[in-house]
RNA sequence: GGCCUCGUGGCGGAGUGGUUACGCAGAGGACUGCAAAUCCUUGCACCCGAGUUCGAUUCUCGGCGAGGCCUCCA
């Protein structure tokens, strides 16, 4: 077995770059927090999807395709979802034509389908597992970890208590709570913006389970009919698919606190383990045209809007362009999403050769090395651009380019052209060549312009042997 | 108020205690009947101030600016 290349990753837990050493190289395990499916995913949501998709591809490249397990959840239980269901189906529910649960199912299904369509357009691979929170609330037939069992265990071990119709995690019961976000709960009180609820033992305690009113969705539990708190689902699903301790946990910067901090607390206290995930990775935030993205600023864009509507810069943007634009900034840096940036990504992509077969080439070291260094996609894209220029000059390099591009998920696809169109283009090219021989430039240029109108770009070259004009064409992407 | 990031040419962005990548755009040129593509050449920067140092864009401190979390927002 060849020596594995060394992968270095920045670990939020230690705030430093560390060499990555999987617990089991035959099964490298990664968990990423997925979407809460109550509304269309916005372009900011796309960032972790793309970043961790590249990491998934890289891990598969290093450890082998069958030796990486990637779980990304879908959160389909959340009070925002309930609110959305009432908003969209309130009338039907009132009339008794639809149950709340059915309305919720419709909201989550529609949103999840949309999410899948959106990220597929961004070139994201399907994770190995994509569990839904609702399937992990109650004990399961297959023995996989579920939320209620986890909560029971936390109570048994003295890390959780019932109060005021809730089950709460007792942050004081965990000696080293706050490791990830480097937060000291006592000092936290100074700012005193944490709401002090009378039933909480400590202001930082958070909800594991809360009771539902008859109108609210709920599941039967030892504490009555209710629904889970925000953080417990990831503790359950990560353990269900990756085990009590695994390699990498990822998500957006904003999740460090409280979400990930609380996940760690729940998981470690429930399992009695010193570590939940060895490495914690967080992607930076996204701004749009230099401003924080928000609906009130009018610079809020969903992935779908960028792909299919002419809202951003007055035009649609292909998924590959959005993806490449995202990878042109290091994942930990803030990224400013702008029209200019998308245009640059599109120009690059247009210069890259399509049609190479990744299976026939090897990933070039110039692309792989920067990726191994904490996912430096910026340097990798630059190296890939250089490879593209090599491949344009020398077709033998095409598979190398293709394999390298595929590692980043930015391999240009060969545009589909029907045989009939192809034939008619060839005929027009011949016609134009004849006109050029006759020095009938006006007619010849008209043919070129007409084809350009249809997105067909003609390129004139010279046959190196005869010096004859040779015309090739390609579909402008 | 507390805790974190970050600040490099028009733009995107590496990187380094000393000789300052690279890409895109721009300018000039080659090629072309003209284009496109391609190739060659080229201008332009390290937020401010103090300190450490023979020397700082790179280290330290202080400003200023941008952003995030502390409010179930990736």
Q: Report the biggest beta sheet as strand number plus sense, adding barrel if it closes.
A: 4 strands, parallel
The number of E-state strands comes to 15
Query: Please, how many helices?
Result: 15
Sketch the topology as an H/E string, one letter per element: EEEHEHHHEEHEEHEHEEEHHEHHHHHHEE
Dominant shape: elongated
Structural class: alpha/beta
Radius of gyration: 27 Å
Q: Name the assembly state.
A: single chain
CATH superfamily of the largest domain: HUPs
CATH class of the largest domain: Alpha Beta
Query: Helix amount, in percent?
Result: 40-55%
If strands are numbered along the chain, what order do they take across the biggest sheet?
4-3-9-10
In CATH, the topology of the largest domain is named Rossmann fold
In whole angstroms, the N-to-C terminal distance is 41 Å
Named at the architecture level, the CATH assignment of the largest domain is 3-Layer(aba) Sandwich
Average pLDDT rating: 89
Protein name: Cysteine--tRNA ligase
GO molecular function, one term: ligase activity
Catalytic activity: tRNA(Cys) + L-cysteine + ATP = L-cysteinyl-tRNA(Cys) + AMP + diphosphate
Subcellular location: Cytoplasm
